[in-house]
Specification:
The complex is a heterodimer of chains A (661) and B (324).
Chain A (H helix, E strand, L loop, with lengths): L3 E6 L11 H9 L4 E7 L5 H14 L3 E6 L2 H14 L7 E5 H6 L5 H19 L9 E3 L4 E4 L3 H12 L4 E5 L13 E2 L4 E2 H14 L3 E5 L1 E9 L2 E8 L14 H5 L3 E3 L8 E3 L1 E2 L11 E2 L5 H5 L4 H5 L12 E7 L1 E4 L3 E3 L16 E3 H7 L21 E8 L15 H15 L4 E6 L9 H11 L3 E4 L2 E7 L2 E8 L4 E7 L1 E6 L1 E3 L3 H8 L26 E3 L9 H19 L3 E3 L5 E3 L9 H5 L5 E10 L2 E10 L9 H5 L5 E3 L4 H12 L3
Parallel strand pairs in A: 1-2, 1-3, 3-4, 6-7, 6-18, 7-10, 18-29, 20-27, 21-22, 21-27, 22-23
Antiparallel strand pairs in A: 5-30, 8-9, 11-12, 12-17, 13-14, 15-16, 19-28, 24-25, 25-26, 31-34, 32-33
Helix pairs in contact in A: 1-5, 2-3, 5-18, 6-7, 6-15, 12-13
Chain B lengths: L4 H17 L5 E7 L6 E6 L2 H5 L1 E2 L12 H7 L3 E5 L1 H12 L8 E5 L8 H8 L3 E7 L2 E6 L2 E6 L6 H4 L11 E2 L14 H8 L2 H13 L6 H5 L24 H14 L9 H5 L6 H16 L29
Parallel strand pairs in B: 1-4, 4-5, 5-9
Antiparallel strand pairs in B: 1-2, 1-3, 6-7, 7-8
Helix pairs in contact in B: 8-10, 10-12
Classes of the chains: A alpha/beta (661), B alpha/beta (324).
Chain lengths: 661, 324
Amino acid sequence: MPRTGVFLCHCGSNIAGTVNIDQTIEASRNFPGVVHVDEYRYLCSEMGQDIIKKAIEDNNLDRVVVGTCSPRMHENTFRKAAAEAGLNPYLLEVANIREHCSWVHKDMEEGTPKAIALLRAAAAKVALNEALEAPKLEVEKRALVIGGGIAGIQAALDIAEAGYPVDIVEREPSIGGRMAQLEKTFPTLDCSACILTPKMVEAAQHPNINLITYAEVEEVNGFVGQFDVKIKQKARYVDPVKCTGCGICWEKCPAKAPSEFEMGLAKRKSIYVPFAQAVPMVPVIDKETCLYFRKGRCQICEKECPPQAIDYEQQDEIIERRYGAIVVATGFDQMDPSIYGEYGYGQHPDILTGLEFERLFNASGPTGGKVVRLSDGKPPKKVVFIQCVGSRDKARGMNYCSKICCMFTAKQAILLKEKLPDAKSYVFYIDVRTAGKGYEEFQRRAAEEYDVAYLRGQVGKIFPEGDHLVVHGVDSLSGKVVDIKADMVVLSAASIARADAPELGRKIGINTDSYNFFNEAHPKLKPVETHTAGIFIAGACQTPKDIPDTVAQASAAAVKAVGLLSKEMLQGEACTAEVDEAECSGCLHCVAVCPYTAIDAKEIEERYGDGTLKRTVAEVNPALCQGCGSCSAICRSGSINQKGFSNEQILAEVDAICLQR
Amino acid sequence: MAENNVENLKKIREAVSQDLLGGRIDLLLGWEKGHYWWQSRPLFARTEEDLEKLTWDSFCAINLSRYLLDELKDFQKVGVLVKGCDARAFNRLLQDNMVVRDRVTLYGLPCPGMLDYDRLAEVAEAAPEGIIEQNGKVTIKTADGEKSADRDDLLADKCRDCIYPDPVVYDQLLLSPVGKKEAPEKFTAIEKLEEMSAEERYSYWEKELSRCLRCYACRQACPFCSCRECFVEQQNPRWQGRAYQASENFMFHLVRAYHGAGRCIDCGECERACPVDIPLQELNRKLTKDINQLYGDYEAGLDAELEPPLLTYRPDDPAAFSEK
């Protein structure tokens, strides 16, 4: 018979408010195996833990049940306390009285019997607990950063500065990301390239950083400390060692394609670097539009390249490498606002999105830095900005606020006035949201010093009339219908998750929310962690954010990754699955459902009649097993059992709840 | 079947005896006549004499593939006669890693559907003493004379809703194919059950399952039951109480049905084997219907290469259980 101690926490009034502590404690005395009971206001406090430790020593307890909050919250706290008193930490069970009972019931009449039942179940389970040992796992002291925008660059720099090697995998031919596309940054109007480019260069030159551009993550296996990653290095058709970045190839290339970097507003060549400050300054050949790849002739780049760096025979390559930690910083996309037919996006060249309009300010942009109408090249006199296009729109767009639009609109309106003092800006908005250091002041400046007219209301229709675009809206503050004869219209299209974020999430084993942004482990207390240990997130791949927030989160993710990499050894999972070979029929359905590829087939020999018979059974690799329990659930004969959650233990819990109702 | 039965049997015997006597197989699983004329039981043929007992008539309902579980332990190469349902059962065993494909030779027998003694007696309104089959008609001989009926009206329950009478997997096809059939009635009973209120449904099953003797014949006949030790017999943990009472009967039948979710090949052997006529197929088919609705049409046993929906993970899998 075990010697079990039951300890009930009041959690202030969180538990004591709806669970009668005295009654529950008295009932617990009679559970099989219980030799000691106690209660305390806050068991998780040092005093509370001391009560448990002392009781273990004084009463020679070999099993402990604590009735507290969720094990997600304090299981570790109590396990540690038990271990300090000399008990194997896995001989302690948490009955979740707070989340599963006291918080969901309104009065003691309901709460108390349920608390008793939950404690009885935990006492029945703990009687069958076995002492477990968590395996020690090595940590590969290298980090992977997925995404080379400002978030990825910052995270990589911080990890590298802490002394660990880090690889950045970037899908595009150059790092830089969205920030590289911006002209100026709010609220200080720093030139975006001027503050970003030094960081790009620093990353490229850092001895601990290895850039893998024009590459994508194909597959991630393994677990915290030992992620085995396959990275597809797409063929550049240019030898990066020989290439000097002289630019002759893209100067001479006769084939053109819309420039992704310029949001399709300008053309690039088929052999190209996305922008002038690209890092690395090594072009790629776009196979789809290259004349040689399409028609088998041209080869001008090959003929003209001074160091003979062009290599049409290059193939995609798979790089396989092990990493201890991963930071995901894959950024965001801009919603295509053409679903809003009333705004006419895509039907008129002077109706642009915010990011497209941004490019018009840039000296190396599609208009050479002249803000002009794309229809006729004339400078606009009236520009209308429309906010929340796809944001805060339950019916057709996203429920959330894209956060950056109010500010970049104020910025663009200011920049416009500075470039074209005669131009007038109008902003249709729902609310102006400018929380952030210096943000409100910045927006007020736009309204007060830069003559930007803010109209609270929505736009119903935009239609061309002669040279103009008539913006038909309502100013809800005056209640009047407003028709503005605009020269250009800028839509603040929602910031949305990358279309392939869920797919990447599946590859690396982290999940996405209903908008396809990556989920953090806790919205307040674990904002850069994910539910998968060793994988962290940073930047707008989590939710729309501005540059300061992105950089802060990237550094936070880097600290988490560094904290992990600095450990000598990690504790593995103790509650792994094990196979009863005598029962296992070898159907291997467990192999199919194991998300960690921790189960393999194994051939065993057993006696049969006068001889022996070979047959197949399942075998669990405890180093890979994360204790999720999928195998145990799929196994019809109960031949796979999870330590700490064995079938016997679960049934004992069910029986303890059902039999004594 | 009777008109060309002699010829068919000759064809079958020729094919299998060549293989058995030539050593290409060590054992043939087929059928032989049982104690009664309306019973054909499994034949385990190792010699030429054994093969003389081989039969192929309208009573070879028993699914032979399941016998491979045992016979492959003793024999290296086994041949099996497979009807549509036996072949689907073979695919089930293959997917469960219970058989090794190249140790088994499958002789495909397109099946016209098997007859049921109880149906014969019902139609004849007397104890049948024999039958004569001709042109889709069956003449039932009784002590009072003869009665004729359409063959389709005399089919065993498990054959009435059969869609795939032709083997879906085989090494040699010994007879000409019958062709895919329609089974519009397949889910009728399930739809009726679904229309019931929870209380009505509970009392329906309480009544049906109260007859269960827990003889486990359904399990023994079933090609998806291939555990080395069934949960009902395990002692630690003791999933299944031994008591003969409604709750324990529910426990057995519901767990049995769930173990077949997405795996049941709809051969109807459980129901055929049941001595107290519990409509077990209704439990199996309800799960099949639900899985089809949730994950798209999937017919277990048709193709061993197709992954069963519950044994795969797809990101867009519906999660009906977590939706409100």
